[in-house]
Amino acid sequence: MKIIDAKVIVTCPGRNFVTLKITTESGIYGIGDATLNGRELPVVSYLEDHVLPCLIGRDAHQIEDIWQYLYRGCYWRRGPITMTAIAAVDTALWDIKAKAAELPLYQLLGGKSRNGVLVYGHANGEDIEETVDEVARYLEMGYKAVRAQSGIPGLPSTYGVAKDKMFYEPADAELPTENIWSTKQYLNHVPKLFDRLRDKFGFDAHLLHDVHHRLTPIEAARLGKSLEEFSLFWIEDAVPAENQAGFRLIRQHTVTPLAVGEVFNTIWDCKDLIQEQLIDYIRTTVVHAGGITHLRRIADLAALHHVRTGSHGATDLSPVCMGAALHFDSWVPNFGIQEYMRHTEQTNDVFPHDYHFDDGLLYVGDTPGHGVDIDEKLAAKYPYKRAYLPINRLKDGAMWNW
After folding, report:
1. Backbone φ, ψ for residue 354 (5° rounding)
2. Which of 262, 308, 309, 383 is the most exposed place for a label (fewest CB within 10 A)?
């Protein structure tokens, strides 16, 4: 089944998305997410100038060979731009293969391991009490797991706190906005947040928290230890993970579960973390870690070492990626949890899909493929708008991790 056409669609129904559409001689097409938040256009160029010319005439069924061709053949391996482009191709090809077989994608992966996929929402507030109210709202909506983020007294803004509570989008300006950070104030504040949440809601609900790469290993160890009594599902991205050895120090001091990986692109980024059991959840995702083909390898390695999946699922992943992720989640035996930040009505109109939320779980449909499409005419009505993620500075003006 030869590929006869491939094109990139850029649209901005409230935020930017990059989508790859591959069409075969039989008329079957597949789509893949290629969105790299805040750096979208380099992936567009990578696909249009370097990848798509190599796809025309190839057999769309040869997913593994095409993956290896794009990975080994480029010489400059890995990295977010390369792996996001490969992921888009891979996802679109899996979509085509499943459509050709007239089966939902999870069936080609081996069938379901579970009926529904546990997801967590993102509750946030300017202060603790507003966060308490937002957690209550998510629980009333049926969520069984909620990530809680709160503003920090004395800091004018911080990661995870948004004006729009339901449709959080951090890429908010044509040039980067600036946040101010204080580790001391943060470490003193977060235990108070979870003390209040457990006092209000008890221990039935799963509570999660995102540090967003802002601590050193010993600071992260202190945070994990201070949160142990509140029985968190996990703390996420406690330290910048370029130095995987940092997690050894955290592990020595706390039993609070650790999750990391949304910025990882290959199995090599998380190899030591998994093999040394330094983390409990690996958060690599379809769109930034080479697609379903490569994500399966990461999950299989993780399963050998008692590490579960916890895929990133923020609003910068389009419904195309979410649909593919949910088919993967439905199959993968060592599933942990799936992040689920809801998309706006505009986005859902551009990307019609068959997955749905009910009582804390997301369910995939039985539409052949990954169950997500794109309305190209509607997408064309929303032109690209440059938008950057914020940056972060310490109080003395020094750059810090956002």
Report:
1. -110, 0
2. 383
Give yes or no for residue 166 having a pLDDT over 90: no
| Tokens coding 243 | 């130095």
Sign for the pseudo-dihedral over CA of 226, 211, 401, 129: negative
Q: How confident is the model at residue 168 (pLDDT cuts 50, 70, 90)?
A: confident
The single-letter code of the amino acid at 21 is: K
Residue that has been written with the tokens 């809801």 in this structure: 342
Burial label, 212 (beta-carbon count in 10 A; 0-12, 13-18, 19+): buried
In whole angstroms, how far apart are CA 232 and each of 21, 193, 255, 259, 277?
40, 12, 10, 11, 18
* C-alpha dist (Å) from residue 368 to 24, 100, 127: 16, 8, 45
| Residue 358 CB-half CA count within 13 A | 7
Strand partners, 7: 21
How far is the C-alpha of 202 from the C-alpha of 258, rounded, in Å?
Answer: 22
**Known catalytic residues?**
159, 212
Q: Residue 312 corresponds to which tokens in the numbers above?
A: 């990133």
Per-residue model confidence as pLDDT tens digits over 282-337: 999 999 999 999 999 999 999 999 999 999 999 999 999 999 999 999 999 999 99
Count CA atoms within 13 Å of residue 187 on its CB side: 16
Average pLDDT, the chain: 96
User: Does 186 score more than 90 pLDDT?
Assistant: yes
Residue 209's SS3 state is: strand
For the chain, what percent of residues have pLDDT higher than 70?
Answer: 100
End-to-end CA distance of the chain: 45
Domains by residue range for the chain, with CATH: 3-104 (3.30.390.10), 109-367 (3.20.20.120)
The reported pLDDT for the residue numbered 61 is 98
Containing H/E element for 394? strand 391-394
What's the DSSP call for residue 236?
E
Eight-class DSSP state of 13: S
Q: Which of 41, 94, 42, 48 is closest to 67 using CA atoms?
A: 94
- 276, amino acid identity: E
pLDDT above 90 for 78: yes
Give me the pLDDT at residue 179, please: 92
Q: What is each CA distance from 123 to 134, 306, 342, in whole angstroms?
A: 5, 29, 12
What is the pTM (predicted TM-score) of this model? 0.96
